[in-house]
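[recover] target loaded
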């Protein structure tokens, strides 16, 4: 299997470009189910140790069912599958461009949660026009074991997020392990107190760079945190800001991540539903490896360490 590794603002993506599972025909959502049912061992082999790590997001690419799209994409990590992935989409676009399979300009990609439009800019930056995003709950109070009440919003940004500024934590890399512990407790509380679908927790604090509007820490499904500002997390943030009347359509929002790297975001209103926005997130990915994964049937960890 040939894979291309990249990182987007520090967060890695491993894209399968040859020798991936044959997921047949159908929509990206149908093929994700086929991946889950019949090829989950490929997911674990590609992203888990010893070939990968908990931080790695994998991407399967294949022919689209919608002829207006350049490709279908399915994202996965060490514990399962993602609906959409902003940093991963930027990584996939950079990968396809590096392979000479995608030219500058606008393209559409089919994901399990809808079609996204990507622009490979002359600068090499990639802009991702995400699926419609919206806030579903405002300042809900969650009782977090050992910490008391935490208030935050619940929003869809292509994945489900609980977003809070009310946490008393320092948003910096030195505190990464305590942030993971705290955010995991918040997720458990959010899941058991009304929002079982939320699998990403996003904490906000003041940015390091004067040009940014905010800094975040995002706990991904599992126990890894996003090294980038998280594309779907930034989309969820824009949905909350729009719903609160704190960011106007077209206005730029610079979201800094835990490493100090940033994504730029803007939105337009979704003409078809008044509660939703369509965010566009812009960032840069770099290629880090072009490798072949070897699967030895005598290797006890052929399908990854479980
Ligand atoms: O960039 O949307 C994102 C993302 C989700 C999980 C890791 N990165």
């Amino acid at each position: 299997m040939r894979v291309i590794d990249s990182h987007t603002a520090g967060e890695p993506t491993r894209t399968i470009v040859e020798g991936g599972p044959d997921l047949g025909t159908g929509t990206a959502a149908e093929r994700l189910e086929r991946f889950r049912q019949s090829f989950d061992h490929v997911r674990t082999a590609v992203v888990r140790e010893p070939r990968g790590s908990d931080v790695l997001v994998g991407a399967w690419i294949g022919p689209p069912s919608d002829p207006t799209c350049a490709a279908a994409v399915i994202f996965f990590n060490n514990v399962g599958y993602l609906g959409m992935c902003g940093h991963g989409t930027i990584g996939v676009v950079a990968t396809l461009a590096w392979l000479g399979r995608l030219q500058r300009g606008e393209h559409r990609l089919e994901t399990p949660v809808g079609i996204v439009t990507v622009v490979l800019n002359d600068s090499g930056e990639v802009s991702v026009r995400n699926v419609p995003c919206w806030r579903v709950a405002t300042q809900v109070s969650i009782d977090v074991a050992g910490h008391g009440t935490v208030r935050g919003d619940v929003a869809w940004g292509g994945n489900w997020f609980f977003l809070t500024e009310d946490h008393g934590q320092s948003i910096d890399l030195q505190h990464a392990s305590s942030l993971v512990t705290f955010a995991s407790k918040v997720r458990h509380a959010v899941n058991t107190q009304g929002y079982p679908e939320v699998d990403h927790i996003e904490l906000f604090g003041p940015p390091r760079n004067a040009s940014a509007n905010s800094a975040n820490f995002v706990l991904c499904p599992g126990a890894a945190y996003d090294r980038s500002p998280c594309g779907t997390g930034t989309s969820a943030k824009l949905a909350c800001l729009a719903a609160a009347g704190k960011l106007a359509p077209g206005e730029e929002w610079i979201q800094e991540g835990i490493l100090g790297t940033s994504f730029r975001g803007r939105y337009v209103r979704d003409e078809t539903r008044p509660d939703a926005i369509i965010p566009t997130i812009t960032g840069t990915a770099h290629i880090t490896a072009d490798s072949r994964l070897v699967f030895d049937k005598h290797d006890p960890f052929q399908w990854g360490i479980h």
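[recover] notes: The pocket of pyrrole-2-carboxylate is lined by residues 11, 57, 82, 85-87, 159, 220, 226, 228, 230-232 (CB under 6 Å).
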